[in-house]
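Annex B. Sample input.
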Amino acid sequence: MPVYLDHAATTPMLPAARAALIAALDLVGNPSSIHTHGQSAKRILEEAREVIAGSLGCDPIEIVLTSGGTESVNLGVKGLFWARDTSVVSRKRILVPRGEHHATIDAAEWLVAHEGAVIEWLPIDELGRISIDSVAQSLREHDDIALLTMLWANNEVGTVQPVAEIVALAAERGVPVHVDAVAAYGHLPVSLRESGAAAISVSAHKVGGPLGMGALTLARTAVVEPLLHGGGQQRNVRSGTQDAPAAVAFAAAVEHPPAPLTHLRDALIAGVRSAVPDAVLRGDPRDRLDNNAHFTFPGCAGDSLLFMLDSAGISASTGSACQAGIPEASHVLLGMGLSEAEARGALRFTLGHDSTAADIEALLSVLPDAVARARRAGYSNRAV
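Annex B, continued. Sample output.
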């Protein structure tokens, strides 16, 4: 039976979310309409918003529903940049750690190309953690910082970031912080109120909700310029007819969170180390996401190993970017100080609510042979 170990990419809908979505699809009415049908749609939409807000430690008015994590990140990064205060200083600098998701990197680089922004890349350490000292130094040395954007937990290697400490440092200098919590949401407590961030991005399909639905939590005191214009919905931040059925399913998913996966993750890590003794666990060995086990396999190319495992019915991820069909070493691993050859041997296993001990046993039964075959292929040393 096929085994799915790529839940960080997307996880199956929870039964409660699926049932809620199917039931809500029979709903008729635009939530912005003032007639009875429209107000019924608005009622269930706002009830869902309350539940989602409760899961993110914020008020319902601070929830901006989006089409997913990528839109939320773009709205957070671009919106905060466009709304920056330039009355005294021309604030064009964006602080971006080197291990960020490409949604953040590409949004920031778009601002460089089209809006005259300047990116200051912040280093990460060998565990993939942002250097607090480098953040503090940048905040001290520059008065032109528009915003700082960061991950709550690294989506590739699973390392949890010091969010509260960094947000507090930025607040002392009046710098708003956007946090990409897409990977962390559902696995760690994520709270807008407790973090002090200006904005936090999340996605429904990562927590057992539907595809095409996400949220940006936006503090009452934060101001963003919208990406979309038209109807003035959601505090004039995100115009467009709101997807009430998807919001209801999103709320159902966060109302029924799965049990923590720490025990299963630890069994997976121990099993891989036993099956392939020279495999190297990447990311913080303790302070990491409860569903993430990220390894590099010396002498292997991750894409070759991925193919071998896929042929055996195991789905995993290399965790690396692929631009225009050309495999690239993970920028996260390179930022952590790995060589290109080491970084190309990466594979990420991520667990979800339907993962079992049998899934891990199935992986471990085929992993040693898959690694041996990938090493014989010898792709890891071939120039790309």
